[in-house]
Amino acid sequence: MAVAADITKRDYKGWIDFCDQVRNSTSVTINESKAEQQKRINRALEDYNYFVKTYFPKYADADCAYFHIDFANAVLADKDFFGVAEWPREHAKSVHTTIIIPMWLIAHKQLTGMILVGKNNDDACNLLSDIQAQLMENQLFANDFGEQYNFGSWEEGKFTTKEGFQFRAIGRKQSPRGFRKGEKRPNYAVFDDVDDDELVQNPKRVNKVVDNLLGALLFALSIKGSRLVGSGNRIHQNSVIANIVGDTKPNIPKREGLYHSKVFAIQNGKPAWWQRYTLEQLNKKIKKAGPVRAGREFFHKTDIEGSIFKNEYFKWGRIPALRLMNVVIGYLDPSFENKATSDYKAWAVWSKRHNKKYCIKRFTRRCELDDAFRAMIDFEKTLPLGVGIIWYVEKQFFNRPVQNALKRVIKETKHRLSVITDERSKENKYTRIVKMSPEYASGNVVYNEEEKHDTDMVEGNMQVKGIEPGYSSPDDAPDADEGAWFYLDQHITYEDIQESSVEIGQREYSDNRY
Prior knowledge:
Layout: H1 12-24, H2 34-46, H3 48-55, H4 66-77, E1 82-86, H5 93-107, E2 113-118, H6 121-137, H7 139-145, E3 149-153, E4 158-161, E5 166-171, E6 188-192, H8 203-219, E7 227-231, H9 240-245, E8 259-262, E9 266-267, E10 270-271, H10 279-289, H11 291-299, E11 315-317, E12 328-333, E13 345-353, E14 356-365, H12 369-382, E15 390-394, H13 400-413, E16 419-422, H14 429-434, H15 437-441, E17 445-448, H16 455-465, H17 476-488, H18 494-499
Parallel strand pairs: 1-7, 1-8, 2-5, 2-6, 6-7, 11-17, 12-15, 14-17, 15-16
Antiparallel strand pairs: 3-4, 4-5, 9-10, 12-13, 13-14
Helix pairs in contact: 1-6, 2-3, 4-5, 5-6, 10-11, 12-13
């Protein structure tokens, strides 16, 4: 999925070409009678699929799916509609929620303005350009429902219709306050694909976006009936879409009053949008993308079933008191660059007792190196007196930028952070990671149950599950795990050797995990 930093404003010449296509595909029959025209209008106002195919042939290469029709009818039926279209990638979320449904409301004389929210301003303006093209150049729509466009441009993020209705485009960080023309306040707002892989790693930033959408955006709309629509696919359990819906964790109910349309690309063994896609086409895409990406983009999965590291292998439990552990090891896998499209900064803290390995804490984010080091220091500060941690980092990555970041954070926090370089001559990464799988299968790996829904833990474990032959998904977290395991295994005690051949009964646990 593209991140906000990759989005640039649409090329104007390309938009003009698109306007020509709209105009040429929506010509009006000159000799048509008034009765014929009214018959078409009447049917279009009742039949959403007919409305789409008649007035938007550029988008209608197939009939609408049931979920397109149901959602559009639900929006029309409720003047105070609040809903989310959680549909798979390439299933026309943006087309319907940002173009056709607003035009559907215009045809029913139920739109008094629109605010469109994207990842950033350029993204929103690009989306706005499509509906402006329809209002300017769609000849058949203008013939049946009246000319709409008056002045303004999507390039500036706003335009106005002949009736004085404003259409505005803003990024997810921008304020929508004050968007009205006289007494005409917008009564339709849509936020589309506002999530990205960088944003979802930061719960504070996600919460700010959610607050802006349910606060400033909602209250910028008319009190006398307003519709708030969101669209996207759930790429992470902490995404904006997930937080808007509400069910970010198991057994948590959805937000009250929300119309939630959640669709999977394949349902009951058949394509959800069977009018456009065959099962063979979808399966080919899934195979090419791999289970991690396909799970996110097609099935809203924030948890996946691995082919090597299976879900059943991930055991959750209380962590024994750290003072009882053989040793506590942390391993940092820094990425090459500090930008959103680079690898993850990942570190993992593992400990060992009685032949079991315990994952205490994870950090798995696309972020600055400084953030990773600050989090390591924050974790150290939680350790009880008498318990220390040994940090390792791969030697080839402990270069000048990494060292400078560490020095900055130590100076800033006034906390000494000792990091040892991993001097090993290592096998290839895939081999090293897969060699961990027997320990998982034997039940000797336990994850901290207090971290089960932590976003770093979720992301890191998804990366572990994504390891398979030929994988192309991120692997920074499992690489950090392997490094930590290697040094854990240097601390084998007599009890560990004895336990490897004898089943041990009751474990010693402390009420305080530290």
